[in-house]
Amino acid sequence: MNPAGGGAPAAPTKTGPHRHPPRGGAPERRSTGFYRDSPLVLAQRELARVAALIERLLDEPDVTLPGEPASAPTGAHHEALRELVPRWHFAMLNDLSRNSLFEEAIKHAVRRGGHVLDIGSGSALLAMIAARYGADLVTSCEIVRPIAQAAARIVADNGLADAITVVNKSSDQLVVGGELPERADLIVTEIVDCGLVGEGIPPSLRHARAHLLKPGGTIIPKGARVLAAPVDSAYLWQLNRVGYACGFDVSHFNEFASRRYFPILLHAWPYRLLTTPVEVLSFDFAKDPLAPGNKVVEVPIEESGTCHGIAFWFELFLDDKRVLTNEPNNRTGHWDQAFQCLPKPLAVRAGTTVQLSVAHFDYLIYFTPLARGQQ
Ligand SMILES: C[S@@+](CC[C@H](N)C(=O)[O-])C[C@H]1O[C@@H](n2cnc3c(N)ncnc32)[C@H](O)[C@@H]1O
Q1: Of the CATH numbers 2.60.40.10, 3.30.930.10, 2.70.160.11, 3.40.50.1220, which one belongs to the domain with range 223-370?
Q2: What is the residue with the minimal CA distance to atom 1 of ligand 1?
Q3: C-alpha angle 274/279/284, rounded to 5°?
Q4: Which pLDDT score, from 0 to 100, does residue 57 have?
Q5: How far is the CA of 110 from the centre of ligand 1 (A)?
Q6: Which of 112, 144, 280, 323 is the most buried (most CB within 10 A)?
Q7: Coil, strand or helix at 303
Q8: What is the mean pLDDT of residues 125-141?
Q9: Relative to the CA of 98, which ligand 1 atom is closest?
Q10: pTM of the predicted model, to two decimals?
């Protein structure tokens, strides 16, 4: 547990990794009714509208900006592409332990002559690994059109166009007998954000398991669990809340604060975990219903302090042997930890227990501390 700075800290001046945009799913994908009609849903709709506009702009000829050489890859077309394709793709593709654990798991599971479905192509990395280890037929689907186009190009550049078909569709739009010649023997996917579910792995696998996988087929990853701890850190709180600036009350700005979790690197800030991390959720992707739910977890408080929010992370079980995690001590992986600010900081006392309500939706995990444990 790291020492937290006492009292309210000065405004953070870091411009570190906390500014990284969340690994959110495609903007048109919406959370469940929990946020229906909330400002967040309205914002999501606006994002979907902007994404559709960008898609349209991509079909128009590129524009050369004044003073720019015609060959410069910085025109409006390229800007639109950059808006559609998050920067984390680069860090993800350079995450060597992620790549090699997926490669080992796929090598172990793929069978010669089998059909593999890769959900969320990205660069088609997982599809190419499956082809490398003997899959006869690989179907790789990708929602974002420019990414799907890049994946098809990369597959061709690597001489694998005969084995891999890239489809520019969301997995839940695929049809057996249409884009898929048959159900898959193996599904591989890495649609996982810092908070596990933000890219929609539960609904995507729920659908794929029911409609696209052969009975008894394999899914990589096979499951996951989520660990969480209450955190005392006024610094993390100030990443999402404001009071005064230069003596002015600017607290009205808090209407823009995120109610959802967002990515942070815990080690970049002073903080204290008020408990040993506890398991709050676990998923067996082959068997569990993967439906939204709610549970209450008892969290024994080990240190007195102020709980500003809940930090959490995942363990992703690719198979029985291989585990990927974004736990705070993993400094080499590309995933940050997830952090959800509480609506109000909560004083807690060592030796008491906080009951934490853990609601999980298709694209969101949301924590609410219940009454006990307060001073
Ligand atoms: C985190 S990237 C992983 C890319 C690649 N599989 C890898 O491991 O390097 C996930 C990609 O999946 C796409 N995606 C997310 N959910 C999808 C779904 N249900 N169907 C198709 N594509 C999806 C996203 O647009 C993104 O490009």
Answers
A1: 2.70.160.11
A2: 191
A3: 160
A4: 72
A5: 20
A6: 144
A7: coil
A8: 97
A9: 8
A10: 0.84
